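Hi P.,

Sorry for the delay on this. The queue was packed all week, but I finally got your sequence through. Input first:
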Amino acid sequence: MCCCGPDPNPNKGDIVTDEVCGVFNIPCGEKATVWELDTAVVFGNGAQSAASVSIYYDKGCSDAMKLILTSASNTKHEIEIPKWNTRSYTFLNIIRAEIECGEKKETPSTERCQGKYCISLHYDVLETSELTP
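Then the structure:
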């Protein structure tokens, strides 16, 4: 709470931080969900989240793969990640992170997209009594 007066949002809950990191190994031409948020726990009465997503594409079927982030408003953000590169993005109210591996090219390549990801999430958790029915 600010030292200058009452909190302007009395329904604001605790700010919680989670960090989810992992590796992915996805077959060519397929998509995998690497993280998903339970919206029933987080959103409501003005609660928001902010997520920073970093992804490294090590090797795979094509020259680039896609990171697909879905927001609470069901808007999709598609980001292309070139092979051997890391990309980092920060978005509000992300509820899902998916990785889409491109189709295998005719030249010899691995059968799967491989790499690492890390999601740092900050979100407002409201008490059940604070939620509007």
